[in-house]
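Page 37, continued from 36.
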């Protein structure tokens, strides 16, 4: 089979790496890919959001199956466009991708379907939003409705901070039309976990849970990022939560069906483990990044079989088996990230790191110079991932690999999985 993977980050490197292990795969293309992906797939210079070009490419190359990494092409309707031409593709259609593309749609679905979630109100008038914030007080969470590159959520510690957030989002429109509406939500406390499921719209299978580290600095300090490291399994998500998680995914799929949406793809639930039980913060309509980098290496099954079964509506025939091993991913980022950062710094030591046992260095933001040197090309540069017999072994091996890799100003957290190890 000829595959096309859309995207060019660490998640897509992990997807390509795992899909390449399937016996049925003869060739993988990746658009646009990166320097690491280029070792396993043929990279094509089409940006992930250019649906028309992606479609033309898939038709020309007679691609048998396409896997979509990021949310932007899903929200732009890449699945609808491919299906209209009879091409098989993994991911939700545009209507389903609204679960991530509109926080208002998502929240309304939670409320209608009885999915446990924080109390919230929806506003399209900034004055009314501010009045509500003054009435209920802080801490409080302000969320822009639409996609805002991961920056549209403000966990405000004071009423003034929440009001400033409303001004930025709704009046100054710093995220454009994404700020036409806001969701104002109670602030939940507890540990956060990422629980992904794959679904064909009727059946779902929950993937091994993972924990992300969103803040840039050790000890969960500093600004939010796309994710600075992950590990799986997590001691926070025990089998005692199975019933609650089943209830969440069952209600979500029923709620989507009630809207006339047959959702095929990944449901990535961002969950807060509160004292009252798990509550949904949000859904993403795609695999997590860098959650994918630790979940895929633990899969003891053929990922292509399962993703294809989702697209074909026959997931009920599959049970997913997992390796006992633990996986840890340490993200190495460019200096200055998540703010402005330089690009084009040479990266050394990649071969030495990859030569270590049970280590995979997934590339996130990299490119190759004309002379063949791997250069930094993004904020998150690498996801250095290791498997181990248990979490301490995986942590130790991941950091052994990190220490082999050098680029100017590289920053990474030293405490990935530390809280789990301390338990
Ligand atoms: P989201 O983009 O919805 O994932 O939100 C980004 C981050 O904001 C989440 O990962 C949480 O850390 C935080 N967050 C979102 N909603 C809440 C809430 N109701 N209470 C506390 N923190 C929240
Ligand atoms: N790791 C967070 C995300 O993928 O959204």
């Amino acid at each position: 089979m000829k595959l096309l993977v859309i995207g060019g980050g660490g998640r897509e490197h992990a997807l390509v790496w795992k899909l390449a292990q399937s016996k049925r795969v003869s060739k993988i293309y990746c658009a646009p890919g990166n320097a690491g992906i280029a070792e396993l797939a043929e990279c094509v210079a089409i940006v992930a959001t250019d649906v028309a070009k992606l479609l033309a490419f898939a038709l020309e190359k007679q691609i048998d199956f396409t896997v979509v990494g990021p949310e932007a092409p899903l929200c732009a309707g890449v699945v609808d466009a491919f299906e209209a031409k009879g091409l098989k593709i993994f991911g939700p259609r545009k209507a389903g991708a609204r679960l991530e593309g509109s926080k208002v749609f998502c929240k309304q679905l939670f409320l209608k379907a009885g999915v446990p979630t924080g109390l919230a109100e929806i506003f399209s008038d900034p004055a009314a939003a501010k009045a509500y914030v003054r009435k209920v007080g802080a801490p409080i969470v302000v969320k822009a409705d639409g996609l805002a590159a991961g920056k549209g959520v403000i966990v405000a510690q004071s009423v003034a901070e929440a009001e400033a957030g409303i001004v930025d989002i709704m009046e100054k429109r710093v995220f454009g039309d994404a700020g036409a509406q806001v969701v104002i939500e109670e602030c939940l406390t507890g540990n956060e976990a990422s629980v992904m499921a794959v679904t064909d719209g009727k059946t779902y299978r929950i993937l091994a849970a993972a924990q992300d580290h969103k803040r840039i600095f050790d000890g969960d300090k500093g600004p939010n990022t796309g994710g600075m490291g992950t590990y799986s399994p997590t001691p926070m998500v025990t089998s005692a939560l199975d019933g609650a998680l089943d209830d969440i995914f069952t209600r979500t799929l029923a709620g989507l069906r009630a809207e006339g949406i047959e959702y095929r793809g990944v449901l990535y639930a961002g969950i807060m483990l509160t004292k009252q039980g798990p509550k949904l913060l949000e859904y993403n309509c795609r695999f997590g990044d860098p959650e994918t980098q630790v979940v895929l290496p633990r899969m003891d099954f053929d990922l292509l079989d399962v993703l294809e079964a989702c697209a074909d509506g026959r997931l009920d025939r599959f049970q997913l088996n997992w390796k006992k091993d633990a996986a840890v991913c340490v993200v190495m980022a460019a200096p200055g990230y998540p703010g402005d950062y330089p690009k084009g710094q040479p990266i050394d030591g990649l071969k030495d790191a990859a030569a270590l046992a049970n280590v995979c260095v997934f590339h996130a933001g990299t490119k190759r110079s004309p002379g063949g040197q791997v250069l930094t090309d993004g904020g998150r540069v690498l996801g250095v991932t290791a498997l181990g017999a248990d979490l301490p072994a995986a942590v130790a091996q991941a950091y052994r690999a990190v220490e082999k890799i050098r680029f100017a100003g590289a920053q990474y957290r030293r405490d990935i999985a530390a809280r789990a190890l301390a338990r």
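The longest strand covers residues 265-274. Flag for discussion at group meeting. The mean pLDDT is 96.
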